[in-house]
Amino acid sequence: MLRIGVLGSYGGLNLGDEAILTCVLNGLRQIRPTAELIIFSRHPEDSRHRFGVTAVPYTGVSQNRLIEAETGLDLLVLGGGGVLHDGQASAVLRPVRLAQELGIPTFGYAIGAGPLTDRAEIRVVREVVENLTDLTVRDHESVLVLENAGVGRQISVTADAAILLEPEEFTEEMLLREGIDSHDRLVGMSVREPGRAADHLDEASYHELLANAADFMTCRLQAQTVFVPMERGDITHAHAVLSAMNAPETARILNRAYRPAQIAGLMRHLDFAVGMRLHFVMFAASAGVPVLPLPYAGKVFDFAQVVGAPALTGVARRETGPLLAELDRLWDERDACTERLRQRFTVLRERALQNLERCRALIDGLEVQASPQASPQASPTADMGANLGGADAGPVRPQRP
C-alpha cells in the first residue's frame, strides 16, 4: 500500500483551496484506490472532518514531529493552488525540503506562484522547486514568477486542479433559506479582503466600485445580487459593499457554510457574475455563466485571458465607468459569452487532467524502481521523472513489510 502525503494551504480557510484538495484527493484515489492518503494541513481537525482521512499539522510543529509524520511516505504532493508567495512560501515548503532530504519523491501539482519579492522566500522557492521530482504549474504567471526567482528547470503549464470539481446540487430550498427568490434574475458577486496577495487594494475605493456595479445591475437587469463568501473574511467586506449600495435591500449575503461543490452548484442559478476571488470566477465560468473577473492579482487576469473573459486593469473607484460599460456589453453578448466559455473549458479540463497523468506516471515509475524484479535497464518508466522534465526521483527507500 502506497502512503501519499498531500500538502497545501488546507484546513477550511478558503473554499478555493478546499476545492483543490477535493480534486487532488479524488485524482489520487483514481490513480491508486488503495493508497493511504495523509493531509498536511494548517488545521488538521477541520481536514479530518471534511475528508475523513488522516491529517497532521505542518505549521508550528518541531522538526522531529515533521520527520515522524513523513517517515514511511512514498510520495509528498505539494497539492496545488497559490502557495508560493511572500509570507507563506517558506512555511509551506519546509515539509517539502525535509521530504527531499529524507529521499522522499516530491511532486508539485498545478501550483501557483506570486507575488514573490522577499529575498529569503525567493531563495527557498528556488532551491526546493529545483529539486522537485516533477512539477506542473497552473498558469503562465507562475512560470514568470519562478523564472524570475532563478528556477532554471523546465516548467509545464497545465490548469488549476479545481477545474475538475464536480458540482453538487444547490436546491431551491437552500436558496429560500438564504432569503433568495430563485424566480428573480440573480447576479453573483465575490469580494475579498486586502491581504498579502492583494496588499495594494484600497478598501474604500473597491467597496464603492463594487457597490456601484451592484446598483447598476439591479437597475439594468432587474436583478438580485448574491454575495458569495469564499472565506470567512469575505463576509465583512460583502457587508461593507452592501452598506455602500443605494439599493441594499436588493442584495443578499450567503450566511451558511457550504462545501466547494455546493458553491459550484449554486452557479446554475446565476444569470451573471462579477468576482474578485479566482475560484468564484472559475466556478461561474465552468457553469457557462457570463462573468466579469476583477483582477486584483495576476492569477485572476491570467485566468480571464485563458477563458476569454473581459477584465479591467485594476480594482479602484476610477474604474467605475469602464466597469459599468463592460457589464452592459457583456450582458448584451451573454449568449456568445456562454458558448465561448463552454468551448474554452473543454480545453481547460483536458489540461487539468494532465496533472493527474503526470502524477500517475511518477507513481508508476517509482513502483517500477522499487520492484525487486525490475532492473533499471529493463523499464522505460524508471526514468519517468527525467522524461517528464523533472529532476531525478532521488534515492529509493526500501519497501515496508
Set out the fold topology.
Elements: E1 3-7, H1 15-31, E2 36-41, H2 44-51, E3 54-57, H3 63-70, E4 75-78, E5 81-84, H4 89-101, E6 106-113, H5 119-130, E7 134-137, H6 140-148, E8 156-157, H7 172-177, E9 185-190, H8 203-221, E10 223-227, H9 233-244, E11 251-253, H10 260-266, E12 272-275, H11 278-286, E13 291-293, H12 298-307, H13 320-332, H14 334-370, H15 384-387
Parallel strand pairs: 1-2, 1-4, 2-3, 4-6, 5-6, 6-7, 7-8, 9-10, 9-12, 10-11, 12-13
Helix pairs in contact: 4-5, 8-9, 8-13, 11-12
Explain what you see.
By secondary structure, the protein is α/β, with parallel strands linked by helices. The protein is built from 15 helices and 13 strands. Strands 1, 2, 3, 4, 5, 6, 7 and 8 form an eight-stranded parallel β-sheet that branches. The chain has a five-stranded parallel β-sheet with strand order 11-10-9-12-13, sandwiched between helices. The relative contact order is 0.12. InterPro entries: Polysacch_pyruvyl_Trfase. Residues 370-401 are annotated as: Disordered. Residues 370-380 have a biased composition (Low complexity). This is Polysaccharide pyruvyl transferase family protein.
Compact summary:
The protein has about 400 residues and is an alpha/beta fold.
Taking the sheet with the most strands, its summary is: 8 strands, parallel
Number of distinct beta strands: 13
Rg, alpha carbons = 22 Å
The rough form would be described as: globular
Span between termini: 10 Å
Number of helices: 15
Helical content stands at 40-55%
Biased composition (Low complexity): 370-380
Protein name: Polysaccharide pyruvyl transferase family protein
Domain Polysaccharide pyruvyl transferase: 14-296
GO molecular function: transferase activity
